[in-house]
Amino acid sequence: MNDDLLQQHLRELPAPELPDAWRAEIISAALREAPAPAPSRPVWPPLLVALRNLFARNPFTATALAALWVLIFLFKAGTPVDPAEKNLIAHFDPNRPVYLVSLQDEIDLARFLQDPPDQGQASQIP
After folding, report:
1. What one-character DSSP code corresponds to residue 120?
2. Angle at CA of residue 73, ends 45 and 58, nearest 5°
């Protein structure tokens, strides 16, 4: 009897019925031995998957990106911050309008506030 005839003969045999007790015992043993399910991982967006594959396969690009981040950090850490700017940012009120004027307009406004014109006279600010 060759292999093909043996396989055909085995396929024609009826499948044996297992007792229900055996089935329950086999399933419980399999569940006990099965590894714990892995925690579900978040699904990455397709762009991040593509970038991850690019950087994992090409160490040059990963090194260049790391160097870029180091440079950004060094430039940010090395940039001096004006204390007056910190003070302005700390007291910035988003509801108050901000007017951007030229230096000459600020000088004229300062002169006007120091020496207000008479109420009877109409004066013009140049």
Report:
1. S
2. 50
Structure tokens at 4: 């093909």
Question: Which pLDDT value is given to residue 61?
Answer: 82
Mean pLDDT of 17-39: 82
- The CA-atom distances, in angstroms, between 32 and each of 25, 35, 110 are 11, 8, 85
| Percent of the chain clearing pLDDT 90 (strictly above) | 6
Beta-carbon contacts of 10 under 8 Å, excluding residues fewer than 6 positions away, are: none
Torsion sign across C-alpha atoms 8, 13, 14, 17:
negative
Burial code (b: 16+ CB inside 10 Å, e: under 16) for 1-29 equals: eeeeeeeeeeeeeeeeeeeeeeeeeeeee
Give the tokens for residue 99.
């007017």
Residue 73 near residue 66, CB atoms below 8 Å = no
**Angle, helices 59-78/46-57, rounded to nearest 10 degrees:** 110
| Residue count (the chain) | 126
